What we know:
Chain A is mainly β. Helices cover 0% and strands 53% of the residues of chain A. Classes of the chains: A mainly beta, B mainly beta.
Amino acid sequence: GAVVSQHPSRVICKSGTSVKIECRSLDFQATTMFWYRQFPKKSLMLMATSNEGSKATYEQGVEKDKFLINHASLTLSTLTVTSAHPEDSSFYICSARALGTEAFFGQGTRLTVV
Amino acid sequence: AQSVTQLDSHVSVSEGTPVLLRCNYSSSYSPSLFWYVQHPNKGLQLLLKYTSAATLVKGINGFEAEFKKSETSFHLTKPSAHMSDAAEYFCVVNNAGNMLTFGGGTRLMVKP
Lengths: 114, 112
């Protein structure tokens, strides 16, 4: 299947700083990318959907100014957690799909804010 | 609207015995259905998918699932559990469009 690479796999940052997570489709052009957050012992929660070249669509309750999403090319989307706080600590997963195909998932990023 | 219900949050089986993870869905359209597996601190791996072809779908690692429209179910099965199958499993539904809806997940534990 297609490969989606997410980087970094783990990151620890200090409270108040910002951290960027990258999601790359390595062997296909991703017209749409999704960002999910997974709380402990819970399912994945869709945060936002981004289409290349346009603004991301955020799900209800997700702060767009806190979770900045950029989908500047057909192979790269980034999620920036701004002014991170301990409650932002979570497992973040991206997925990417080309037009008419299934979504492929990245490996996930474990964010710990101390 | 679409929704997915995984009926068991935890399933425990002995190694070598059958596995059954239950999933029911609701959808306004003919959906695509998926099962994903997530090992601890890892990303999601696609096990299998149903996209309106054969109703019995075979996936990786000996897993299979049967789409039953009359019961709106897509249960995941495996004849014989292996220790390496211990993980979290997610049933996912996708209608036309980009939205993937995840079930709550089922944690599978395999006892030696």
